[in-house]
Amino acid sequence: MRNRLPTKDNLRMHGIIVEESEAVCPFCHQQCETLNHISITCEVVHKLWMECYR
To answer: Which pTM does this prediction carry?
Structure first.
């Protein structure tokens, strides 16, 4: 994906988000919002997808 999606991690790398606390995943509030996190490792998003496929 070449890091083109405006994840909070990418916004932070470009200086748009300054504080690390602002880069937290809006779903689980546990880890930094990265493409990998929101598509694979976020438990809340995973549960949401599982509900959609039921």
So the answer is: 0.80
